[in-house]
Amino acid sequence: MTIGSAGEHTWRYRLWRHLRTAYDGPFTLVGPRETLHDPVSDAPTSSAYADPDFPRAHLAGWGEGWQHMTPLIGETVRSCRADVLLVSLGLIDLGFYTNAEQTTDNVRAFVAAAREAYPRVRMAVMPVIRNIRVESDPAFAGQVARFNELLAKTVADLDEAGSPLLLVPPPASYDFRTDTYDGTHPNESGEHKIAGAFAEAMWREWGLGGPYEAA
After folding, report:
1. Which residues pair with 58 in a beta bridge?
2. What are phi and psi of 53, to 5 degrees?
3. Residue 198: which H helix or E strand, with range?
4. Phi-psi category of 54—alpha, beta or left, where left has phi over 0 and alpha has psi -120 to 50?
5. Backbone CA torsion sign across 113, 117, 122, 124
6. What is the pTM of this model?
7. Helix (H) or strand (E) run with residue 155 in it
8. Are 140 and 133 in contact (CB under 8 A)?
9. Alpha-carbon torsion 90, 40, 3, 51, what sign?
């Protein structure tokens, strides 16, 4: 949902477009990766962005979640000098790798590793956005609800004045039936809604940027 697939803009692009006009200061997107997922090779090897003219650096992966990113985040923060982390993870963890409690343990480890790399890092974390699987798999739907509950408590527990941890309210109008192209991955409207959720949260809580306007 964050890395994007060949031919897409990605919500990263939508957020960058917004901040170019809403944020009064220098900024850039950072990370050790730049590519999109290539559906043909089923690998992160594509550079075919719908509009490639933006800072494409990121730390995201097709089929990667908290479990996969936790071992990478410390070195990424150090090497890329990241000071704000925008995190949307968990769906793949709960779907294939870890239960709600185990995923929450990975959240805590992720936060600790990021802070060890840069003690004043800010983190904006979005709960898991429901996808089409919740309709046919009640157990999975229950795990999503349980994790989102635990995530909210974990964010509150770990929030610090010097390294704020922000729970980003998921976009209220987001509907996987209309805001994705396959029940999971965002289409244009979904990209705008995810970008808007991060933008509005950073503006309201941290004074970064301004109200989101789709562009």
Report:
1. 33
2. -85, 65
3. helix 188-206
4. beta
5. negative
6. 0.97
7. helix 138-158
8. yes
9. negative
Strand, coil or helix: 117: helix
Place of tokens 């963890």: 93
Residues 6+ apart with CB under 8 A from 63: 92, 96
Stated as kind and residue range, the H or E segment containing 200 is helix 188-206
Over its length of 215 residues, how does the chain's per-residue pLDDT go in tens digits?
999 999 999 999 999 999 999 999 999 999 999 999 999 999 999 999 999 999 999 999 999 999 999 999 999 999 999 999 999 999 999 999 999 999 999 999 999 999 999 999 999 999 999 999 999 999 999 999 999 999 999 999 999 999 999 999 999 899 999 999 999 999 999 999 999 999 999 999 999 999 998 86
Helix axes 100-117, 66-80, angle to 10 degrees: 10
| Close Cβ partners of 89 (under 8 Å, ≥ 6 residues apart) | 65, 66, 69
How far apart are alpha carbons 71 and 54 in whole angstroms?
Answer: 27
Return the number of other C-beta atoms located less than 10 Å from residue 142's C-beta. Answer: 13
Distance (Å, whole) CA 64 – CA 150: 20
